[in-house]
């Protein structure tokens, strides 16, 4: 096991650069950190390219038998390459997964379509919540957030290892749901909107959540079968998009 | 209207320092920024000590007639005193409100008790959600987060102007709820826990949410009447605490 001690080492510089999308694309890799994420990646059978650890004895607990290159690093290097204030001292470099691009032939179960959700923390929390709710897949429409953004990776808490993520054009997805008679629910208060508690627990459905500030686009809104809203008894004008997504998803799914 | 142009001005230095709890306590004041918050503060009849604006014409829209001191500032000063990357160019300094300390005699409606929730973003989102749900009051137990932390203020989106916030000892609060025959719900998966959908919509209730990593303390847990859990069909092990709080609150309240 190689022991790296300087932030000036070329490997260390490369790891640091993985915080940028440019470098992730160039090296076809991304970085994860912390025990929970590394454990989830192992359980999901992910390939590891590199593992970096401050205390090599920690690896004993991991039942570690991958073909990854393993490096011991100093706490200073850990702080340097970490995206958090309190790094746990373990990191791994994984190859990028190819996004699912094609719309599956069978659109069964619950689906979540995101119309230009922008904040990486919100996006990650929504994907984690969709994973917990038993949603089949999440489609990221119009978002400029890279799925391997460190803040997004952190807030997903490993859910990208479980749930299918798609990059796609929402119009094409909505058309596909309609062709299979799957109801498409928007979330936007308008004259025809129903309370989210009034549509029961459909076996198959597509739920669309809109952008934090602007909601759903008019074009997408025009194509929904039904708009849902969350009645609010209190004084707040709106809910955080991740909270709203959680409330509606856990209502729609059969539990 | 005084026009300030230098970050070295003593006023500007003081505003910058309001990002720290020490300075907020010392000057008995805190800072808010952005149109939405300033608008909410006006609507709630809050007293303004100072208003700082990049473009004084913006004040015309505010129907501004308070006795606050008003300052024109440069975009550079706005960037300097702001807690965000993209400041909107308007700020105000408000006096600290005294926390409610005493437990009210009548504990009616829904109440949310937070057992050591730590992250300011989570805490703010939870308070905003409680406000939307029509919760009567939120009790912060054991938390070290200052209510005037800039990140907390930002994520509450003005809900601290609407909803009563209490600092308190959760044991004393739970005792008060019990004396008034108000059911106290914990949220922790244990042998006696029920699904959150199985307790109906009680007129009065207290709901306790625990710490992000450690959940509720054993001491608090022992005093609940009933523990609730959220059944999860998917693979994620847990939910973000703000999302979980939203799902349970919107289920419990009558809508």
UniProtKB/TrEMBL annotation, chains A, B:
GO cellular component, one term: cytoplasm
Protein name, as recorded: rRNA methylase
Keyword hit for Transferase: yes
Biological process annotations from GO: methylation; RNA processing
Coiled-coil residue windows: none
Gene source species: Lentilactobacillus kosonis
GO molecular function per UniProt: RNA binding; RNA methyltransferase activity
SUPFAM superfamilies according to UniProt: alpha/beta knot (SSF75217), L30e-like (SSF55315)
InterPro entries named in the record: Alpha/beta_knot_MTases, MRM3-like_sub_bind, Ribosomal_eL30-like_sf, rRNA_Methyltransferase, SpoU_MeTrfase, SpoU_subst-bd, tRNA_m1G_MTases_N
Assigned protein family: Belongs to the class IV-like SAM-binding methyltransferase superfamily. RNA methyltransferase TrmH family.
Keywords assigned by UniProt, alphabetized: Methyltransferase, Transferase
PANTHER family linked: RRNA METHYLTRANSFERASE 3, RRNA METHYLTRANSFERASE 3, MITOCHONDRIAL
Superkingdom assignment: Bacteria
Domain spans labelled RNA 2-O ribose methyltransferase substrate binding: 31-100
């Amino acid at each position: 096991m190689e022991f790296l001690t300087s932030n000036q080492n070329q490997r260390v510089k490369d790891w640091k650069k993985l915080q940028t999308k440019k470098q992730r694309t160039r090296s076809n890799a991304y970085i994860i950190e912390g025990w929970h994420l590394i454990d989830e990646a192992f359980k999901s059978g992910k390939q590891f390219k590199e593992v970096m650890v401050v205390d090599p004895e920690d690896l004993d607990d991991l039942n570690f038998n991958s073909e990854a290159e393993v490096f011991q690093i100093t706490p200073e290097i850990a702080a340097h390459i970490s995206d958090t204030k309190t790094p746990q001292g373990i990191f791994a470099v994984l190859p990028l997964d190819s996004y699912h691009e094609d719309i599956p032939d069978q659109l069964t179960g619950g689906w979540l379509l995101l119309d230009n959700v922008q904040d990486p923390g919100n996006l990650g929390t929504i994907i984690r919540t969709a994973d917990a709710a038993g949603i089949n897949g999440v489609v990221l429409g119009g978002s400029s957030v890279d799925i391997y953004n460190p803040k997004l990776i952190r807030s997903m808490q490993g859910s990208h290892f479980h749930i299918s993520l798609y990059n796609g054009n929402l119009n094409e997805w909505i058309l596909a749901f309609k062709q299979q008679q799957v109801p498409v629910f928007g979330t936007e208060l308008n004259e025809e909107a129903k309370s989210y508690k009034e549509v029961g627990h459909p076996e198959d459905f597509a739920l669309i959540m809109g952008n934090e500030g602007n909601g759903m686009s008019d074009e997408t809104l025009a194509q929904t079968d039904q708009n849902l809203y969350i009645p609010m008894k209190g004084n707040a004008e709106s809910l955080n998009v991740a909270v709203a997504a959680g409330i509606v998803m856990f209502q729609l799914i059969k539990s």
